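Tokens for Prostaglandin E synthase 2. Go.
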Amino acid sequence: MQNAAMAALAVVKVCSQVYRNVAFCVYRTREAYFLGRNEFISVRLFSTHGVPNMSNSRKSSTLMYGLLGISMGALVGAGYSYHKKTETQSPAILNKNMGTTSAVLETPPDFQISRKVVVPADNTGLKLTLFQYTTCPFCCKVRAVLDYYGFSYNIIEVNPVLRQQIKWTEYKKVPIVLAHVDGVYQQMNDSSMIISALASYLHDRNQGLEEVVKFYPSISFTDDDGKLKNDILNRYFLMYQGNIPQDKTKDTILKERQWRKWADDVLVHMLSPNVYRTREEALQAFNWFSEVGEWEKHFSTWERYLVVYVGAYAMWIIGKRLKKRHNLKDNVRASLYDACNHWMKSMAKQGTEFMGGEMPDLSDLAVYGVLSSIEGCVTFQDLLQHTSIGKWYYSMKQNVQSHAGCSIMNG
């Protein structure tokens, strides 16, 4: 009974917070749309007050009562769900859907293509479509690999808040890649898995892409805390099938795998607390995201306002939480500089231009992809001034944009 009471109290607290956050975001979005950009920035965006009293407006009152009703419904539903979950949950770790592979679709989702990348040298026959946020570091990693090796592919820009473009799939993250092969559409999820699968396919095209994907099964499991988690096995492994390339050794393969994991587990967590360090930097970053992602072309005005203004404010708050979660220094810039200096010193120690040697490997592409996601932000300019990473970064950029890895595709 005591545990049930504590659980009920926790649910009440969570739902109360949800109610406050929803009311706040709805109010801010409404003002962003009707007041216009300049007035919203100067009057509302940086206000530290809570949601104002809207009782003078009948419409606003109706909105608030509606939100209250939704929140109370969420409270009752969450409480009931938690009760049913605790009744049936086993204290042991449960593995579900062990060995499930990515979905194969008979028909593609119907969304307008945002942009096409055409590389004449692409002879794979794969018709790839990338669902992405332009400046998502994980999407940037995938694009770096696609561009470096010279894949042709279509891009569908996903609205970061509404996400209508990926409602067709149970997987609710980006990047997602669809490959049109043998009359069907092979879905691939998770940036590292996508990269490993495509690199493995380039190494040995005798095994079809659908067969390669089977080496990366997904699993869902409940951990000791009762939280449902998902993972993809072998995501950092390339499937050489015992036929290791001549320019690779077991040591270099292991090192490449370790640095790719470092990019995901360490470097990427430095970005948000730095990019959204202040409200001004957060807004500057989102305006750059809008520009480089051509949001004005792909999204309606109110959608763009929602993403830019509410998104910037939300990420400024979230960035502070991520700083604590990942134990970054009080001066978050110092943590980012330390990570990039560690990368550069490790490369200097082996005396090569790239971590992969004379040419970039997948770890180079991973680190470059992560950093390219902030190239237009204040954070990146500070990074260039306080570290020596600029020479390597722009050399990587030239290799990626010139499709320097096409020789592997044609080989």
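The two ends are 67 Å apart (CA to CA).
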